[in-house]
Design brief:
globular, D-Maltodextrin-Binding Protein, domain 2, 6 helices, alpha/beta, 24% strand
Length: 209
Amino acid sequence: MLAAPHVAEAIVIDAVATLSRSDPRFTASVDSRVRIDIDNWLGQEHFDLGITVLPISHAGFETEEFLRIEAVAAMADSHPLARLEAVTVADLASTSFIATHRRSLIQKEIERQADETGVAPDSRFETQSGMIACQLAARGLGCCVADPFVAHSSGTPGLIFRPFRPAIELRYGFVFPAWQSRSRLGRELSGAIAERAKALWGTIRTSFG
């Protein structure tokens, strides 16, 4: 199985543990790859199940969406934007914005919204890692916009989330090799992963208040 490191931390490990407890014969090989390099590793790796943010397009693989979530604004609980019910790209111009990789889906959408509104975020810090961005934000260095599973996996105390508007939708899906049938254990694991992901997203959304 292949998944981004934050997906393995937030979702996959718990799903594997749940299945292992219910079936002592269950085995799994879990490895991680960065989503931004998906075009490279898809054609070079052997795996039965992958988890990633869609869309992807590769003739040798089939995809199946299982959850839609929204990017969140992440910051320290003492940050001025924490008082807002939701954060916009205009709000990011009034504070230190922690930008991420320009090829990432979220950063590209932030830049699109900035161009559309004519208001540019104040990007004092930049990192290629969404997890590092969240860790910087938790230390009071600014606000970042992140995949909520990345933010959750950063393991940083004092980090809080607010909805980002207009919403940046992230579609999570499974990737299956098209040339082989899906095993029973593979179907059970994908079901457990989807269930865990939905529960975690529900927990994160309740923290917006």
